[in-house]
Structures are given as structure tokens and as C-alpha cells.
User: Fold this.
Amino acid sequence: MDEFDSFVRSRSAALLRSAYLLTGDQHLAEDLVQSALARTHRSWGRLRDRGNAEAYTRKVMYHLQVSWWRRRVAEAMPGELPEPRQAGDHADQTTIRMTLRAALLRLSVKQRAVLVLRYFEDCTEAEAADLLGVTVGTIKSQTSKALAKLRVVAPELAELYLLEGVAR
Assistant:
């Protein structure tokens, strides 16, 4: 189990970042990582290539998130989105992050998962489809719908070039 402990210590922070993007909540992200690591631990002896342990754990994480989403009622994000500032300082970056987080939370969990995989994790359409257990066509349509919704709910992100260069 020293190998598993080493894996957990070295990859937990990266897994938590991805989980946070998927859930939009620190506590839910921690729960998601913990659940995924527990399942990985149970399967540790069966993993043929320990170099794929992170990929296995991420796949478990994505599947758990979609499963949890199916059990929950769609959540609404109350309040207004923050207005972006004009100066290029730390406050701007914080505002952009808050705006992006609020906008991502207005997407369905599946759409959010697709965007995280495609644009944060740099997965190809085929890799994202494999991780989520859907077709490439589903990834394409969910990406298109998610980006269209982001342009509506957070047009200021497009103005900041966050959505520029992303397929329309």
C-alpha cells in the first residue's frame, strides 16, 4: 500500500482541482475525490499498469459526478454575476474566476463535465467520450450547447476573450 499512499499524496491536489471544477463546491469536490480514491484503493490490486492509476481515478470521478447529478434536482444559482473590472490586477483575475464559476454552475453537470474535460483537462473528443461513457457525437453536442449557454449567461466572458477561439 506504500505505492497507493504515494499516489494519493502526489496526485490529490490535481484531482481536487478537477473535482472542484466539476462540482463548483469545495466540500463536494473533496467528497468526490475521497469517493474516487476509495474506489481506486479497492481496485488497486487489479490495476495492471500503476502508471494509469490517475486516469482510472479521474474516470471514476467523472462517473461518480454524473451519477450524483442524476440523483439531484437541478440547482439554480441565485444573484447577479459580478461585473468585470477594467484594471489588469489580481482583482480582475478573481472577478474572472468568480464569473466563470458562476457561469459553469448554471450549466448541467454533464455539460460542465464535458467542458472541464475538453478545455481544462485537454482531452480529445474521443477521450472525453470514453471517460464519460458516451458517444463522440454527445460530446460535440454537449460542448456546443454548453458554450452557447455560457455566451448567454456570461457574455462578459466572451468580451474578455475567454470564449474566443472556441468553436461557435
About this structure: The radius of gyration is 17 Å.
